[in-house]
Specification:
567 residues, mainly beta, 10-stranded antiparallel β-sheet, 6 helices
Length: 567
């Protein structure tokens, strides 16, 4: 219909012109001295091309990592999980030093006709054991050893009068205030490192040997003596105990006659009831567990993914769920970094996390009120990455906050971590760029350009949007084969600013693009006008929603001057 209407209008004009001319002198030569160009109107325009409503749901491809959240606000979302394990081996060592024997001096007794049973103070005994000489290999994970809780650590001390026959004249030997002082790092179940027998120890002909049970609870190493007891390089530490125990008692001998000996040998034998093992250790542990997770973000829209789009997110949220199966808190240092396939990378953002025993749900955000506030998180998304990585630069270290919080040995601990990342598309300093086009111009303009010689075409349209930003545009021209028409047509963007309303209401902006042909024949080659819309420095707190759109409508191509038809 467009083509027919143009021709009918021209035919009517020519018919009218013919009637006028027929009324004139038939001898008049139209080829001489007469301007045969006919002007039709002051301007001329036709509807051309086509575009569609460009919703952000088309620009932003929804996927597993990009989807609208609350109020349709887009978010970069992703989640995943990782795990590692710690296997702490058991430790066993002997605490059975050799003690040996001591001679109890039997005081001389003056014989009398009527000697009665009497108690004789035989003084005090004191002796020391040989050094313990313990060198127990610690698990490779142990860097510092504050306290080792002991298992099966009931030891036995046997005291024996080392004589084949009980000496004549002696009824019994009594040890009073019997005390054993152990090395300061060994702690008894009753507390402290000094064992005091609760009653007298009596040895006699009927009871030549007495065994005492001495239970230990733990070994505790003061901070200032770590180097004395823990030796070796990291991963190859040894617990060394090279000290003596001391035994003391007051000795009383009961006699009913004249003793035939001047000294009485008392032997000591020290043994553990079984193999003493370390049940748990409080200290500093260097484990080979770590978090090294690469999170891939798929299906990023071109307008965000290419290098011309940038922004600073107002809010970045990492929700990290960390299961700590141990009885110790972890002090983790996690490194966050964003990467693009072209080699671009962000600075590393360090995040310090404390994970208590049990399940930890930790919100890491640049917003106040989060569990861990990291103001630098938005730096990770100054560009939309193809992936970002979460790493623990060092393997996970466990630190006992005090000497009573310990890790059980002989177990494998599985560390599970899950994460959810949500980055709302609410940005400051945003730059958006995306591309659309007006197509099929060659067909629409063919009939006009075939009959009309013009050097200018003005494309007018209306840009409609509810994206709350101001967007500028640039234009490129292409022929039917997709080749750019860079040098044959000059482009003047007289009006092409898409002004979105800050409230998000629909607004309209005029579009005027003036095309000037500077090389003959280029207008006939023109088929597509590609326009790139840019939003620069958008400002703060701009949200992008899936149903926001840009629409270029009511597109016309006009010839600004009267059409001249040569007769």
């Amino acid at each position: 219909m467009k083509k027919i209407s143009y021709y009918l209008r021209g035919a009517a004009i020519l018919t009218s012109l013919g009637l006028v001319l027929s009324a004139c002198d038939k001898e008049f030569d139209l080829s001489k001295d007469i301007n045969t160009d006919l002007s039709v109107g002051n301007s001329f325009s036709i509807p051309v091309g086509k575009t569609t409503k460009v919703e952000l749901s088309r620009i932003i491809k929804e996927s597993g990592t990009i989807a609208p959240g609350g109020n349709s606000v887009y978010e970069v979302i992703t989640s995943g999980s990782t795990s590692s394990s710690v296997n702490l081996t058991t430790v066993s060592f002997g605490i059975t030093p050799s003690i040996g024997s001591v001679n109890i001096t039997v005081p001389s007794i003056t014989p009398t006709p009527m000697l009665k049973a009497t108690h004789i103070n035989a003084g005090s005994l004191m002796l020391q054991s040989d050094p313990y000489n313990v060198n127990a290999k610690l698990p490779k994970e142990v860097d510092k050893f504050y306290r080792a809780t002991l298992s099966n650590a009931v030891t036995q001390l046997s005291l024996k009068i080392d004589s084949n026959q009980w000496p004549t004249g002696i009824d019994n030997v009594t040890l009073k205030n019997f005390t054993i002082q152990f090395p300061e790092i060994l702690n008894l179940t009753s507390g402290g490192n000094v064992f005091t027998h609760s009653s007298d120890i009596v040895l006699s002909a009927d009871t030549k040997s007495v065994t005492i049970a001495i239970p230990f609870a733990y070994a505790d190493i003061p901070d200032d003596k770590q180097d004395q007891y823990i030796t070796g390089e990291p991963g190859n530490k040894t617990f060394t105990l090279n000290e003596r125990l001391s035994i003391s008692a007051d000795v009383e001998i009961s006699v009913s006659g004249i003793p035939e000996i001047t000294s009485l040998p008392l032997a000591f034998e020290y043994n553990a009831a079984g193999e003493v093992t370390v049940a748990s250790i409080a200290g500093v542990f260097h484990t080979d567990a770590n978090i090294n997770e690469t999170i891939t973000i798929n299906d990023i829209p071109d307008f965000l993914k290419n290098g011309t789009s940038s922004f600073t997110p107002n809010e970045v949220n990492f929700k990290l769920t960390l299961d700590n199966p141990m009885a110790l808190p972890w002090d983790l240092s996690l490194g966050f970094q964003s990467l693009k396939d072209n080699g671009q990378q962000s600075d590393n953002v360090n995040v310090a996390i404390n994970a208590k025993p049990g399940s930890n749900s930790i919100l890491i955000s640049n917003k106040q009120g989060a569990d861990v506030v990291v103001p630098g998180l938005p730096k990770l998304f100054a560009f939309i990455p193809d992936r970002f990585v979460i790493t623990s630069p060092n393997d996970i270290s466990l630190i006992s906050p005090n000497h009573t919080q310990a890790v059980d040995l002989g177990k494998e601990y599985v560390i599970n971590a899950t994460y959810d990342v949500a980055i709302p598309f609410s940005f400051s300093n945003m730059k958006i760029e995306y591309i659309d086009d007006i197509t099929d111009l060659a067909d629409d303009l063919f009939d006009v350009l075939d009959k009309v010689d013009t050097k200018q075409i003005v494309v007018e349209a209306t840009a409609e949007t509810d994206i709350p930003v101001s967007m500028n545009a640039s234009v490129k021209l292409f022929d039917t084969s997709g080749n750019p028409l860079e040098d044959g047509i000059k482009v003047d963007l007289e009006k092409f600013v898409v002004n979105g309303d800050a409230s998000g209401a629909v607004s309209e902006s005029p579009v005027v693009v003036k095309l000037t042909q500077v090389k003959d024949g280029y207008f006939k080659r023109l088929d597509r006008i590609e326009y790139t819309i840019n939003a620069n420095n958008v400002g703060s707190n701009v949200s992008l929603r899936s149903n926001q759109y840009v629409l270029v409508k009511n597109i016309t191509a006009g010839i600004p001057n009267p059409i001249k038809v040569t007769l």
